[in-house]
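From the methods appendix. Each design record in this collection lists the tokenized structure first, followed by the designed amino acid sequence. Records were kept in a plain field format so they could be parsed without special tools. The example shown here is representative of the layout used throughout.

RECORD:
FOLD TOKENS (480 positions):
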């Protein structure tokens, strides 16, 4: 794949970006539709949380398996399968007769989605072997996230107002079919030199860990933290985590290679991904309910209010890629942390039922700047510091961290908002301030980790880890 002509490499990037656009549009547009889904299907706040988290949990659980599978049987094959399953899940979502059916269809979507973004990033990493060119490609990739964030709320609002929330899922069919055809024609097949073994035990432990953790968080406001079921879920999650850590150290090809985390920048990128997407999940969830349930805007005007956030993300994402290529990840990470913390702090200090547009718009724009800047350094750090044969798994770990962060953001912020009355705007605003302080804390954490994990010592640990992994990979290939 690395011998492709330059124009072919950029065409492959464009095809992979189509899948990213489809998945990202689906996520951002759906958040604007949450109040409409709540009304039409008679859903509680926890039902809305599961509409989002059923997708993100399954996605997070299967991403690393999909990355390993793609390295083994072929990245193009898995990518095309993912497109087909995602389109099927989208059609099922559009015809779901009730909330339970919608959540089940979202699970089907997630199974397909797990085969898209990390596999596409692995394809891109192999197409662009030069580090500077790869950083620019990742900047474009991140820019597509910004485009989807800009178009998603507005497009979702327009579809909800004109055709209903089900139309959001119809949108995936033409984009997905186009990507499917272009993949067949232009994306060459690739595999890892030494495919990793399937790890069903590790996969099962990860699913148990994520599912029980999220269930305990989402259901605790309804059942209470003293509920035997909630306590059992929390204990099961802790047991699954400890068991997985012990098991992964002993297995030759574990689902998550714990040696990756000997690299300080890789650890930092993982934690930053969780914090950044926790912020995004919380931001979209609380903002959608605030704009439509408290300020009583329709879905289209709620989307317009979110446009400054999305537009600034669209502008800052490719800029971040260029900065990473020229100067490394520290500047965009530190700036992102400052912007996210400032945005959330501004809203926490001024949040009210009739918050001035002169405050709300700059706060949303600051959030967009921060979120747009943070993506490229996460992806570039995760992929560039690892041997190319492990690109699929490394990209999958970064993608899993993103999905885990978003799932936790929706779960934690949603659980917080579920403790208040949504018929009383004053109560909502009071609880909302706490949510914004949590998001501000995530911004501060990104600032701190971005500063600590991008220095010379941190970079030396990344180089040492990459060399060690490459040597061990060569030995394993020779033995095989």
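DESIGN:
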């Amino acid at each position: 794949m690395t011998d492709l002509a330059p124009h072919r490499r950029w065409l492959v990037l464009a095809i992979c970006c189509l899948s990213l656009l489809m998945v990202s549009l689906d996520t951002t547009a759906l958040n604007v539709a949450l109040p409409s889904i709540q009304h039409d299907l008679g859903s509680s706040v926890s039902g809305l949380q599961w509409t989002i988290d059923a997708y993100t949990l399954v996605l997070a659980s299967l991403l690393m398996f999909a990355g390993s599978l793609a390295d083994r049987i072929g990245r193009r094959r898995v990518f095309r399968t993912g497109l087909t399953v995602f389109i099927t899940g989208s059609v099922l979502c559009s015809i779901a007769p009730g909330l339970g059916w919608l959540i089940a269809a979202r699970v089907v979507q997630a199974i397909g989605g797990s085969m898209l973004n990390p596999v596409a990033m692995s394809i891109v990493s192999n197409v662009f072997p030069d580090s500077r060119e790869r950083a620019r490609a990742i900047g474009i990739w991140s820019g597509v996230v910004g485009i989807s964030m800009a178009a998603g709320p507005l497009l979702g609002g327009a579809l909800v107002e004109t055709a209903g929330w089900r139309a959001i899922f119809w949108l995936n069919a033409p984009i997905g079919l186009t990507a499917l055809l272009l993949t067949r024609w232009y994306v060459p097949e690739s595999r890892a030199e030494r495919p990793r073994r399937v790890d069903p035990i590790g996969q099962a432990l990860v699913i148990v860990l994520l599912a029980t953790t999220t269930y305990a968080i989402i259901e605790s406001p309804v059942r209470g933290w003293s509920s035997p079921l909630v306590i059992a879920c929390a204990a099961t999650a802790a047991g699954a985590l400890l068991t997985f850590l012990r098991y992964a150290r002993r297995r030759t090809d574990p689902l998550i290679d714990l040696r990756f985390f000997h690299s300080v920048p890789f650890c930092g990128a993982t934690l930053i991904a969780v914090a950044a997407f926790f912020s995004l999940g919380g931001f979209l969830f609380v903002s959608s309910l605030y704009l439509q349930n408290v300020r009583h805007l329709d879905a289209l005007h709620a989307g317009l209010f979110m446009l400054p956030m999305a537009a600034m993300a669209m502008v800052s994402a490719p800029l971040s890629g260029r900065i990473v290529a020229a100067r490394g990840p520290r500047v965009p990470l530190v700036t992102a942390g400052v912007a996210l913390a400032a945005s959330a702090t501004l809203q926490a200090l001024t949040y009210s039922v009739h918050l001035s547009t002169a405050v709300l718009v700059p706060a949303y724009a600051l959030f967009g700047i921060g979120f747009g800047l943070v993506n490229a350094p996460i992806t570039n750090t995760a992929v560039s510091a690892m041997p190319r044969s492990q690109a699929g798994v490394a990209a999958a770990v970064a993608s899993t961290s993103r999905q885990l962060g978003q799932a936790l953001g929706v779960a934690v912020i949603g659980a917080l908002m579920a403790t208040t009355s949504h018929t009383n705007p004053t109560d909502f605003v009071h609880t909302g301030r706490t949510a914004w302080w949590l998001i501000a804390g995530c911004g501060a954490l990104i600032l701190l980790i971005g500063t600590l994990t991008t220095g010379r010592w941190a970079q030396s640990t990344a180089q040492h880890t990459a060399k060690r992994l490459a040597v061990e990979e060569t030995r394993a290939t020779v033995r095989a």
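APPENDIX NOTE: The chain has two domains: 6-199+251-479, 200-250.
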